[in-house]
Amino acid sequence: MNTGASQTRSSVRFTVYQPGIAPQQVAIPGDMITLGRASDCTIPIKDRFLSRRHAEIVRDRGQWFVRDCGSVNGTLVNGVKIAEPVPLRPGDRIALGDSEVVFHADEMQSQMIPIDSDSHATNLAIKVDSEERGTERTRILNSLALEFLADRPMSDLFEFILDRVVGLLHPSRAAMAFFGPDRTTFDNVKLRRQDPSESTDLLISRTLLKEVVDGRQVVSFFDSSQDEKLARAQSIIAQDIRSAICAPLLVGDAVLGVLYLDYKATRGAVTENDVRLVAQIARFAAVTLERTRLREEAFAKAKIDDELRTAYAIQKRILPSSLPVVDGYTFAAANRPAKSVSGDYYDVVVRPNGRIYFVIADVSGKGITAALVMSSVATAFNIFTRTDPTPADLLRELNATLAPKTAPT
What we know:
By secondary structure, the chain is an alpha+beta fold. Helix content is 31%, strand content 30%.
């Protein structure tokens, strides 16, 4: 990127969220901003998951870009891990370890949260100032942002998000629904009801859902009785729904699922502020869910890698480090597993009476399971050869011992 001195120097604003620290609003001049654990970074962040120089934000020809500096744990923009410089837009969330930096434009800009274009709320597209300082919603969002930064397992994260939604918005029902591999049906739905005695199934209007997913936007209706199309929707009528909000759980261009709230006819309708708040919560939730998924996958992979290293060390000890020297014979062997560990086995045993046993075995399959079977073969072989059996008797003993303990393939 060209960041020559001929460009006009500017300042850019950020909101920095760190674990255990109140959100900080910072305005920084210049065309190069560094982020990391090092104290000489433009924005030093105390986070054990950050590298010393973790990422850079650079201005090039009037456009701001963020790039990862080869950090150990990577940099995410709106939940998507980046491999090359990515242009920034106002409101973009840069995740680094357990911390988050929100990018703001040089000038005050506004954004539009789309409302259901077919409902009576068509003309209520909501203009949201990018700062909204001092408002109750901003205070709520700052508090939520800190809570979302806390390290939670994926299983607890769903409940935490629904707890906050129900506590803040008091819907009749709230749900997080996640798409399955086919991207058309849900395979994981978490539901909360205001009335615990209610047992009816949740049916999300297909009309509503299609607009949310296809348009990648928040969709709501304020009063179903005033909307001609929704007034005829069977799912709306059957569930006695007056108003609802549905927001995509969006990471990059991928819709992971939806955050859905509805209000029965006997309860109050949603407001414009409710729509704003749900849009932000869905954004927080999607980024946090994706970050948690990536972290848990990394931890799981690290655990598997550690187990494989241990299994490989065990396998190396089971295979003979050297082969016996016997007059008239030359023995040689080597093992190169296709994976970290395998089911290959060889050995040569020379008995005191001069009898020589040698074995070459290949367990079906690869990996830890094959290595475990191989270790059983090695143990049995070394035990049974001590009685100097004939080859046929040895094989019968091995088969009788191992077959009942080995799953069929």
